[in-house]
Design a protein that fits this description.
The chain is 53% helix and 4% strand. The chain contains 8 helices and 2 strands; from the N terminus they run H-H-E-E-H-H-H-H-H-H. The protein has helices at residues 18-21, 55-59, 77-97, 116-140, 149-168, 181-201, 208-218, 226-250, and strands at residues 66-70, 73-76. Strands 1-2 form a two-stranded antiparallel sheet. A hairpin with a 2-residue loop joins strand 1 (66-70) and strand 2. The chain is globular and about 60 Å long. The two termini are 30 Å apart.
């Protein structure tokens, strides 16, 4: 199987394990609120922070803090903070539209009963939980051996070492010379989604009747005939069903 992302290796996986990998509704221990914002019971983060504060300051998290458990696997502060960096711009944009100023106290001024701090925390934890579920599913499919944060950091280091070695040998790989962790997390998630959707497709009923039903839902005025876009309709249906299954596993 070839990766949709240049320079990232696709791991082989046995389709025979798809049935176990695609079970929806697995009981998941997901606590979306960070206990005392310190995982183990630290002091709350300081109030009065301006919008420029770091996500670590805003959430009161350290990389090693245990935030929650997902299918028995810990989600740690580093994973939540990485997700918070991605969600930060969205939260800032949303709350400035509500009229909040970016100066001191920004993170604790509520709109409709929710502060920017709470919005950032909840979105970051949800995203980190979803990624952990994705990695657990990938392990079941034989795509990953280690779903921990340490495993992710090893993957990143190995990929960057591979790119550096290729550049030294005069055969640079397509894409960036090296990844930062935020970019690599997005690339890896997209790669795993692509592979896992194919695993999940093996468990779906994709009859002609169902594909035609999906086409009727998707097609607008002037849409090409079904026969011309059948493969696109199938891909869209598989992607939609995969996303539903992933969200269901995340709880």
């Amino acid at each position: 199987m070839r990766s949709a992302t240049p320079g990232i290796r696709r791991r082989a996986f046995p389709l025979g394990r798809a049935a176990a990998a695609a079970v929806v509704g697995v009981a998941v221990l997901v606590a979306l609120v960070v206990a005392l914002t310190r995982g183990g019971g630290g002091t709350p983060p300081p109030r009065g922070l301006a919008a420029s504060a770091t996500v670590s300051e805003v959430l009161g998290l350290r990389p090693g803090d245990r935030v929650t458990l997902v299918e028995g696997e810990p989600v740690v502060g580093a994973e939540v903070l990485r997700a918070a960096e991605t969600a930060r711009a969205e939260v800032l944009s949303e709350y400035t539209r509500y009229g909040l100023t970016l100066g001191p106290g920004f993170w604790d001024r509520a709109h409709a009963g929710v502060t920017p701090r709470r919005a950032l925390r909840d979105r970051a934890v949800r995203a980190a939980v979803l990624d952990k579920v994705r990695r657990v599913w990938a392990r079941e499919a034989g795509l990953l051996a280690d779903v921990s944060e340490q495993g992710f950091q090893r993957e990143l280091a190995e990929e960057n070492a591979r790119r550096a070695r290729a550049a030294r040998e005069g055969r640079p790989l397509p894409g960036v010379p090296s990844y930062d962790e935020h970019t690599y997390a997005g690339v890896r998630a997209a790669e795993l989604d692509s592979a896992l959707s194919k695993v999940h497709a093996a468990t779906l009923e994709l009859s002609e009747r169902r594909l035609r039903e999906q086409y009727r839902l998707m097609a607008g005025r002037g849409a090409p005939p079904f026969e011309r876009v059948r493969d696109n309709v199938r891909q869209a249906l598989v992607a939609e069903e995969y996303r539903k299954a992933l969200r269901a596993r995340a709880g």
